[in-house]
Structure formats: C-alpha cells, structure tokens
Amino acid sequence: MHVDHVAFGWDDLDTVRAALDAVGLPFDEGGTHADGTTHMALTGLPDGSYLEYIAPTPGTNPEAAGFWPAALAARAGPAAWCVRVDDVVAETKRAIDAGFAVEGPLHGGRDRPDGRRVEWDQTFERVDAPDRWLFPFPLVDRTPRSWRVSETDGVTPLSGVDTVVLGVADVDDAAALLDRRYRIPAPVLAETDAVAGDVTDVPGAPIALTAAGDARLARVGERPAAVLLGTDDLAAARTAYELTDPVAWGARRAAWFDRDLFRGRVGVIE
Prior knowledge:
By secondary structure, the protein is an alpha+beta fold. It folds into two domains: 3-148, 2,3-Dihydroxybiphenyl 1,2-Dioxygenase, domain 1 (Roll), CATH 3.10.180; 158-269, 2,3-Dihydroxybiphenyl 1,2-Dioxygenase, domain 1 (Roll), CATH 3.10.180.10. Helices cover 21% and strands 38% of the residues. The strands form two sheets. Strands 1-4-3-2-6-7-8-5 form an eight-stranded mixed β-barrel. Strands 10-11-12-9-13-16-15-14 form an eight-stranded mixed sheet, with helices on one face. The longest helix is centred in the middle third of the chain and has 12 residues, at 171-182.
C-alpha cells in the first residue's frame, strides 16, 4: 500500500493558505478540478506523496462541492486518502472480490494555474456504506505524474506521508474490514498523548486507527482524522516549521503543526 496523497478539506482555501504560511509549510497552487466546484493547493513531498488542501471554489456552496462536500462544509481537515496503483482496473476488481460496492474507474482531472490539464482514473470503494471514506481510493495517472505533483521547494527535512490516522467508531471492526480488503497485520497499541484516546499502529502499513469522538463521527463519519509526515530529523523539522513540543508515539516521537487549524490534524513523526 503506497499512499499517493491525503486530502485536507476546508470551506475556504485562503484560510488554509494563511495557516500554512504561519507554520512555514510551503505549498504550490494546484488549480481547479474539472467540474469547477473545488480548487486546491498541495505540498509535494520527496517520496512522491503529497498533501492536498481542497476547498469549494469561490461562490460554490460547500455542500454542493464535487469532492467530499460534508467534510468541506464541516471543516473536517483530513477528509480522504488515496493510494497509488499500477492498474486501477485490477485494483477495482480486488475491491469487488472483497465484497465491496465500487464506483469506477472514473475519469478525473483538474486545470493547473498554468492552463495544463492533469488527468487520472480513480475508483471509490464501499460506496454503499457509511464508512466509505475510511478506505483509500486507488488512482492511476493518465497524464505524466509530474504534471499532477512534484516536490515543493523547501519541504526538507520532510520525507513523505508516513501515517494516515483513521478515526473510526470501533477499532476492531475497522481493522477487520481493512484486513478483508488489504490483508493488514493486526494493529498494535501505540502509547501516545498526541491524540485523545488510544491509538493503534498497523505494522508495515502507513495506517493507525483511533476511536473518533461522537461529535466528529456525527459531523463527518469514519474517515482520516489526522496525517503524520515523516522526517529523519525532528529537531531540524522543528527549526524549519512551527511545531508543538514532541510527544512519544510508540517508540517514535511526533509533533503537530502549531496552529489551531492543523493541531491534532497534521503533524510530523520521526
């Protein structure tokens, strides 16, 4: 499982840009999606993964947005995640074989600020289930991947998306579903004070699970709740960016980008 990107959803992109500037996390403008209802910016990371910051285009009601309208309207922060695959048709078949209802493959695209059209194919899984955004959507590029994302200047010492923290109603149930689809190892409790409640890591996979609070579940359902970017040097990352004090995350250390919009939602892990 290779994380392609994590979508961070908000109702106004200017607010997200201002928070990124405040913590020193660089980003590139990404343009407008093909249906015209959402636009985005992104932070491209050295391993090819990226954070996408997505919001309704000006004048669009968030609840009418083409991507994750409930999450955008609710200022959910992490809203969805995507895995990079070589063959989206084969990956779609694997989801069907696991008993999941699917939508796709679907043709997607966006227009970059320089006018270049970026295109891809993607499939959404468990489309008949309330926990559908718990699962990543597989994606493959039609146009060169470098058109969709390239490393953003100044992102060192970050390496890539390390861990997607999934906020779920029941950790055991979610782990069983993920195992059915991806054959994941059994989650292991990770001692941390970074988030409220217990967190379990999935060894060898870029996933952690945590029981989301009732308020978040009522607002946005089961979906990514946080994302941690990897670094080999947390001290250097704290020099480069505004981060909270580090806390233990199992045998590692983690810190959040230190603004209300990101704290508890986007961080760094060593």
